[in-house]
Design a protein that fits this description.
With about 290 residues, the chain is of the alpha+beta class. It contains eleven helices and eleven strands. It folds into two domains: about 130 residues, Sandwich (Immunoglobulin-like), CATH 2.60.40; about 100 residues, no CATH class. The chain is elongated, with a radius of gyration of 33 Å. The protein starts with a helix and ends with a strand.
Protein backbone atom coordinates (compact mmCIF):
# COMPACT_ATOMS: atom_id res chain seq x y z
CA UNK A 1 0.00 0.00 0.00
CA UNK A 2 2.81 2.32 0.92
CA UNK A 3 4.63 1.47 -2.33
CA UNK A 4 1.51 2.26 -4.35
CA UNK A 5 1.19 5.58 -2.59
CA UNK A 6 4.79 6.52 -3.40
CA UNK A 7 4.35 5.54 -7.06
CA UNK A 8 1.21 7.69 -7.24
CA UNK A 9 3.01 10.73 -5.82
CA UNK A 10 5.88 10.28 -8.29
CA UNK A 11 3.43 10.06 -11.17
CA UNK A 12 1.69 13.25 -10.06
CA UNK A 13 5.03 15.03 -9.73
CA UNK A 14 6.10 13.88 -13.22
CA UNK A 15 2.86 15.14 -14.77
CA UNK A 16 3.23 18.48 -12.99
CA UNK A 17 6.85 18.80 -14.12
CA UNK A 18 5.91 18.00 -17.74
CA UNK A 19 3.13 20.59 -17.64
CA UNK A 20 5.49 23.22 -16.25
CA UNK A 21 8.03 22.45 -18.95
CA UNK A 22 5.43 22.78 -21.68
CA UNK A 23 4.17 26.06 -20.17
CA UNK A 24 7.66 27.60 -20.20
CA UNK A 25 8.09 29.72 -23.36
CA UNK A 26 11.14 29.33 -25.56
CA UNK A 27 14.11 31.22 -24.16
CA UNK A 28 15.37 32.46 -27.53
CA UNK A 29 13.97 34.83 -30.10
CA UNK A 30 14.92 36.37 -33.39
CA UNK A 31 15.16 39.48 -35.53
CA UNK A 32 13.55 39.79 -38.94
CA UNK A 33 14.53 43.00 -40.75
CA UNK A 34 14.33 44.80 -44.06
CA UNK A 35 16.81 47.50 -45.09
CA UNK A 36 16.01 50.12 -47.70
CA UNK A 37 17.65 53.31 -48.93
CA UNK A 38 16.26 56.40 -50.63
CA UNK A 39 18.54 58.84 -52.48
CA UNK A 40 17.49 62.47 -52.91
CA UNK A 41 14.99 62.78 -55.75
CA UNK A 42 15.19 59.02 -56.17
CA UNK A 43 13.21 55.86 -55.65
CA UNK A 44 13.45 53.73 -52.52
CA UNK A 45 15.30 50.51 -53.18
CA UNK A 46 16.36 47.52 -51.09
CA UNK A 47 19.85 47.29 -49.60
CA UNK A 48 21.14 44.14 -51.28
CA UNK A 49 23.99 41.90 -50.16
CA UNK A 50 25.11 44.07 -47.25
CA UNK A 51 26.40 42.43 -44.05
CA UNK A 52 24.45 43.30 -40.92
CA UNK A 53 25.61 42.56 -37.39
CA UNK A 54 23.82 41.99 -34.12
CA UNK A 55 25.79 43.60 -31.28
CA UNK A 56 25.52 43.54 -27.51
CA UNK A 57 26.53 47.20 -27.43
CA UNK A 58 25.87 50.19 -29.67
CA UNK A 59 28.58 50.64 -32.29
CA UNK A 60 28.72 54.31 -31.32
CA UNK A 61 29.42 53.35 -27.70
CA UNK A 62 32.04 50.85 -28.85
CA UNK A 63 33.76 53.66 -30.73
CA UNK A 64 33.71 55.80 -27.58
CA UNK A 65 35.25 52.92 -25.66
CA UNK A 66 38.01 52.70 -28.28
CA UNK A 67 38.51 56.49 -28.32
CA UNK A 68 39.15 56.48 -24.59
CA UNK A 69 42.26 54.39 -25.25
CA UNK A 70 43.66 57.11 -27.53
CA UNK A 71 43.10 60.46 -25.74
CA UNK A 72 43.02 63.66 -27.76
CA UNK A 73 46.18 65.78 -27.81
CA UNK A 74 46.39 68.44 -25.10
CA UNK A 75 45.05 71.62 -26.73
CA UNK A 76 46.34 73.81 -23.93
CA UNK A 77 49.88 72.53 -24.43
CA UNK A 78 49.51 72.93 -28.19
CA UNK A 79 48.49 76.57 -27.69
CA UNK A 80 51.33 77.24 -25.26
CA UNK A 81 53.84 76.05 -27.86
CA UNK A 82 52.56 78.45 -30.55
CA UNK A 83 54.61 81.52 -31.50
CA UNK A 84 51.74 84.00 -31.14
CA UNK A 85 50.93 86.74 -28.67
CA UNK A 86 49.86 85.92 -25.10
CA UNK A 87 46.56 87.67 -25.83
CA UNK A 88 45.82 85.35 -28.75
CA UNK A 89 46.74 82.32 -26.63
CA UNK A 90 44.31 83.47 -23.95
CA UNK A 91 41.56 83.93 -26.56
CA UNK A 92 42.13 80.42 -27.94
CA UNK A 93 41.97 78.86 -24.49
CA UNK A 94 38.82 80.77 -23.53
CA UNK A 95 37.08 79.74 -26.76
CA UNK A 96 38.61 76.26 -26.79
CA UNK A 97 39.46 76.74 -30.45
CA UNK A 98 42.63 77.13 -32.48
CA UNK A 99 40.92 77.74 -35.81
CA UNK A 100 41.25 81.31 -37.07
CA UNK A 101 39.12 80.96 -40.15
CA UNK A 102 35.52 80.36 -41.17
CA UNK A 103 32.11 81.47 -39.96
CA UNK A 104 32.50 79.89 -36.51
CA UNK A 105 35.66 81.88 -35.91
CA UNK A 106 34.09 85.16 -37.00
CA UNK A 107 30.93 84.55 -34.95
CA UNK A 108 33.06 84.11 -31.80
CA UNK A 109 34.82 87.45 -32.31
CA UNK A 110 33.80 90.50 -30.31
CA UNK A 111 34.89 94.11 -30.90
CA UNK A 112 36.81 93.91 -27.63
CA UNK A 113 38.78 90.91 -28.96
CA UNK A 114 39.82 92.90 -32.04
CA UNK A 115 41.14 95.71 -29.90
CA UNK A 116 42.95 93.49 -27.37
CA UNK A 117 44.53 90.75 -29.51
CA UNK A 118 47.34 92.21 -31.65
CA UNK A 119 46.93 89.65 -34.44
CA UNK A 120 43.19 90.33 -34.65
CA UNK A 121 43.69 94.08 -34.72
CA UNK A 122 46.25 93.90 -37.52
CA UNK A 123 44.10 91.54 -39.58
CA UNK A 124 41.00 93.70 -39.07
CA UNK A 125 42.79 96.90 -40.05
CA UNK A 126 44.41 95.27 -43.07
CA UNK A 127 41.10 93.82 -44.24
CA UNK A 128 39.21 97.09 -43.92
CA UNK A 129 41.79 99.71 -44.80
CA UNK A 130 42.43 98.06 -48.17
CA UNK A 131 38.82 98.09 -49.34
CA UNK A 132 38.90 101.80 -50.26
CA UNK A 133 36.29 102.81 -47.68
CA UNK A 134 36.49 106.50 -46.69
CA UNK A 135 34.69 105.77 -43.42
CA UNK A 136 37.42 103.61 -41.93
CA UNK A 137 39.67 105.60 -39.53
CA UNK A 138 43.06 106.68 -40.86
CA UNK A 139 46.16 106.55 -38.69
CA UNK A 140 47.66 110.05 -38.28
CA UNK A 141 50.48 109.12 -35.93
CA UNK A 142 53.95 108.35 -37.25
CA UNK A 143 56.41 105.89 -35.77
CA UNK A 144 59.20 108.48 -35.83
CA UNK A 145 57.19 110.61 -33.39
CA UNK A 146 57.30 107.76 -30.88
CA UNK A 147 60.78 109.01 -29.91
CA UNK A 148 60.81 112.61 -31.20
CA UNK A 149 57.40 113.63 -29.90
CA UNK A 150 56.02 110.90 -27.62
CA UNK A 151 53.10 113.00 -26.34
CA UNK A 152 51.87 113.71 -29.86
CA UNK A 153 52.39 110.08 -30.82
CA UNK A 154 50.44 108.83 -27.80
CA UNK A 155 47.53 111.23 -28.36
CA UNK A 156 47.17 110.48 -32.08
CA UNK A 157 47.49 106.75 -31.54
CA UNK A 158 44.86 106.84 -28.82
CA UNK A 159 42.55 108.78 -31.12
CA UNK A 160 43.07 106.21 -33.86
CA UNK A 161 42.44 103.23 -31.55
CA UNK A 162 39.21 104.79 -30.28
CA UNK A 163 38.14 105.44 -33.85
CA UNK A 164 38.73 101.81 -34.86
CA UNK A 165 36.83 100.56 -31.83
CA UNK A 166 33.83 102.77 -32.59
CA UNK A 167 33.91 101.64 -36.20
CA UNK A 168 33.94 97.91 -35.45
CA UNK A 169 31.20 98.34 -32.83
CA UNK A 170 29.04 100.22 -35.32
CA UNK A 171 29.82 97.83 -38.20
CA UNK A 172 30.20 94.26 -36.82
CA UNK A 173 29.69 92.92 -40.34
CA UNK A 174 33.18 94.22 -41.16
CA UNK A 175 34.64 91.36 -39.10
CA UNK A 176 33.91 89.06 -42.04
CA UNK A 177 36.89 88.60 -44.27
CA UNK A 178 39.53 89.38 -41.69
CA UNK A 179 40.24 85.66 -41.32
CA UNK A 180 41.76 85.70 -44.81
CA UNK A 181 44.44 88.02 -43.45
CA UNK A 182 45.30 85.41 -40.79
CA UNK A 183 45.98 82.43 -43.05
CA UNK A 184 49.72 82.57 -42.45
CA UNK A 185 49.38 82.26 -38.66
CA UNK A 186 46.30 80.05 -38.46
CA UNK A 187 47.26 76.96 -36.38
CA UNK A 188 43.96 75.21 -37.15
CA UNK A 189 45.29 72.95 -39.94
CA UNK A 190 48.21 71.80 -37.76
CA UNK A 191 45.83 70.92 -34.93
CA UNK A 192 43.53 69.01 -37.29
CA UNK A 193 46.49 67.07 -38.68
CA UNK A 194 47.58 66.18 -35.15
CA UNK A 195 44.14 65.01 -34.05
CA UNK A 196 43.56 63.13 -37.33
CA UNK A 197 46.47 60.83 -36.50
CA UNK A 198 44.26 59.20 -33.86
CA UNK A 199 41.55 58.15 -36.30
CA UNK A 200 43.20 55.04 -37.85
CA UNK A 201 44.03 53.70 -34.38
CA UNK A 202 40.51 54.39 -33.08
CA UNK A 203 38.93 52.78 -36.12
CA UNK A 204 41.04 49.63 -35.84
CA UNK A 205 40.41 49.36 -32.10
CA UNK A 206 36.67 49.91 -32.59
CA UNK A 207 36.47 47.05 -35.07
CA UNK A 208 38.62 44.84 -32.86
CA UNK A 209 36.38 45.44 -29.86
CA UNK A 210 33.25 44.85 -31.92
CA UNK A 211 34.50 41.55 -33.34
CA UNK A 212 36.01 40.11 -30.17
CA UNK A 213 33.55 41.30 -27.52
CA UNK A 214 30.24 42.48 -28.88
CA UNK A 215 29.21 40.75 -32.14
CA UNK A 216 26.56 38.11 -31.47
CA UNK A 217 25.52 37.23 -35.03
CA UNK A 218 25.92 38.29 -38.64
CA UNK A 219 23.86 37.90 -41.79
CA UNK A 220 23.75 39.35 -45.32
CA UNK A 221 20.65 40.88 -46.84
CA UNK A 222 19.10 39.14 -49.85
CA UNK A 223 17.97 40.75 -53.12
CA UNK A 224 14.92 42.18 -51.37
CA UNK A 225 17.02 43.74 -48.61
CA UNK A 226 15.72 41.18 -46.15
CA UNK A 227 17.63 39.44 -43.38
CA UNK A 228 16.87 37.14 -40.45
CA UNK A 229 18.77 36.21 -37.29
CA UNK A 230 17.42 33.48 -35.01
CA UNK A 231 18.49 31.82 -31.78
CA UNK A 232 19.12 35.03 -29.86
CA UNK A 233 18.87 35.05 -26.09
CA UNK A 234 16.20 37.48 -24.92
CA UNK A 235 17.61 40.94 -24.27
CA UNK A 236 18.63 44.25 -25.81
CA UNK A 237 20.77 44.36 -28.95
CA UNK A 238 21.88 46.72 -31.70
CA UNK A 239 21.43 45.92 -35.37
CA UNK A 240 23.83 47.66 -37.70
CA UNK A 241 26.49 47.70 -40.38
CA UNK A 242 29.53 48.67 -38.27
CA UNK A 243 31.67 50.98 -40.46
CA UNK A 244 30.17 49.84 -43.79
CA UNK A 245 27.82 52.15 -45.66
CA UNK A 246 24.94 51.33 -47.97
CA UNK A 247 25.04 53.54 -51.06
CA UNK A 248 22.48 54.66 -53.61
CA UNK A 249 22.91 57.84 -55.61
CA UNK A 250 23.88 60.58 -53.17
CA UNK A 251 22.72 58.59 -50.12
CA UNK A 252 25.31 57.06 -47.77
CA UNK A 253 23.74 55.23 -44.86
CA UNK A 254 24.82 53.02 -42.00
CA UNK A 255 22.70 51.75 -39.11
CA UNK A 256 23.11 51.24 -35.36
CA UNK A 257 19.51 50.54 -34.36
CA UNK A 258 18.45 49.28 -30.91
CA UNK A 259 16.37 46.10 -30.96
CA UNK A 260 14.72 44.25 -28.08
CA UNK A 261 14.41 40.47 -28.45
CA UNK A 262 11.72 38.73 -26.43
CA UNK A 263 11.56 34.99 -25.61
CA UNK A 264 9.74 33.03 -28.28
CA UNK A 265 9.17 36.09 -30.49
CA UNK A 266 10.62 37.48 -33.70
CA UNK A 267 11.16 41.24 -33.59
CA UNK A 268 10.51 42.89 -36.94
CA UNK A 269 12.51 45.97 -37.95
CA UNK A 270 12.52 48.26 -40.99
CA UNK A 271 15.79 50.12 -41.54
CA UNK A 272 15.64 53.25 -43.70
CA UNK A 273 16.96 56.79 -44.06
CA UNK A 274 14.79 57.80 -41.11
CA UNK A 275 16.62 55.64 -38.54
CA UNK A 276 20.11 55.62 -40.05
CA UNK A 277 23.01 56.39 -37.71
CA UNK A 278 25.05 59.58 -37.73
CA UNK A 279 28.29 59.10 -39.69
CA UNK A 280 31.22 58.38 -37.34
CA UNK A 281 34.10 57.80 -39.74
CA UNK A 282 35.09 57.85 -43.38
CA UNK A 283 32.66 55.53 -45.19
CA UNK A 284 33.52 52.07 -46.42
CA UNK A 285 31.08 51.79 -49.29
CA UNK A 286 29.38 48.52 -50.05
CA UNK A 287 29.08 47.46 -53.67
CA UNK A 288 25.53 46.33 -54.15
Amino acid sequence: MKSLHVRLLLAIFAVALLGATRATPAQTGGIDFTAQITPANGTTEPVRGLPFYVLRKSFEEIRKEASAQYPEPDMSKFINDLTVSPELKDWMKRNHSVSLTGDDFVSNLKPHDVMVVPEFFKAYVDANSHDGSDDFPKAKFKEKDKVKNPEKYKALRQEYMEGVQKFVEAHPETLKGMDVEMNTINPGPSWLAMTAKREPFIRRQTMELARTRYIVAQTDTDLQGHGTVNGLTAGNYWLGTLDIYATAGDARLQWDAPVTVKPGHVTRVVLSNANAAEPMAAPVAANR
